[in-house]
Amino acid sequence: xxxxxERIIIVGGGSLAIELxxxxxxxxxxxxxxxxxxxxDDFISEDINLDSIKxxxxxxxxxxxxxxxxxxxxxxxxxxxxxxxVKILDEKKVNFCTFxxxxxxxxxxxxxxxxxxxxxxxxxxxxxxxxxxITINVxxxxxxxxxxxxxxxxxSFVDVTGKVQLGEKVMVGSGARFLPSIKIGDNCTIxxxxxxxxxxxxxKTAYCKPAKLI
Length: 214
Ligand SMILES: CC(C)(COP(=O)(O)OP(=O)(O)OC[C@H]1O[C@@H](n2cnc3c(N)ncnc32)[C@H](O)[C@@H]1OP(=O)(O)O)[C@@H](O)C(=O)NCCC(=O)NCCS
What we know:
This protein is of the alpha/beta class. It folds into two domains: 8-97, Rossmann fold; 99-200, UDP N-Acetylglucosamine Acyltransferase, domain 1 (3 Solenoid). 12% of the residues lie in helices and 29% in strands. The protein is built from two helices and 24 strands. The strands form four sheets. It has an eight-stranded mixed β-sheet with strand order 6-9-12-15-18-21-23-24, with no helix packed on it. Strands 7-10-13-16-19-22 form a six-stranded parallel β-sheet, with no helix packed on it. The mean pLDDT is 96. Coenzyme A (COA) binds next to β23.
């Protein structure tokens, strides 16, 4: 367990942020967490009550003045919003950290960038490469040699099979499945429950089984 005094700052106060906070609390990674945990958001300003813990609102994203030892965790699911907010916070040189729940299984050969969050019971298999600011929700499997671009979000129970390449800012709905070696372009949306057999060009939405494009 870490036993330091730095502030732990969750970026966002919506549903994904609340999930992230609950998994951070459940992970027991941080000591003395009640006094150190805060969130920032431009629209939500009420403290978050989770079990017996109060997560205090620290201020708006644009107004935050980071301290050197702050740890920032990105609690936002929407890829476009993530990229916009990271741009603002990068200018302030905040220290983005990656959270990996202890129940996730990560291969020793997986590479993971900064600002990622990986929720319980997820798996990242050999030689998978996760770039910065990726969100992986519960029970999601990232297969061998998979590449995932920045800001992409995988919802729960997603199955990304071997050698699939997901572009940047892709939003993948719950329970979607990708067949091996296909490529999903940048800014794509994949519907909940889709089974994607073929590559998808930039900016397209794929849904249903077999997936059709819109
Ligand atoms: C595919 C998706 C992006 C389409 O969103 P949309 O453009 O707003 O589409 P609509 O909700 O207007 O639905 C349009 C039609 O597609 C159908 N449809 C929508 N999503 C579908 C899906 N995932 N699989 C099959 N059919 C779907 C709807 O039933 C509707 O059919 P109808 O015209 O016969 O009534 C969205 O439905 C989706 O699956 N999002 C992922 C949600 C998710 O998993 N979020 C993460 C967990 S919180």
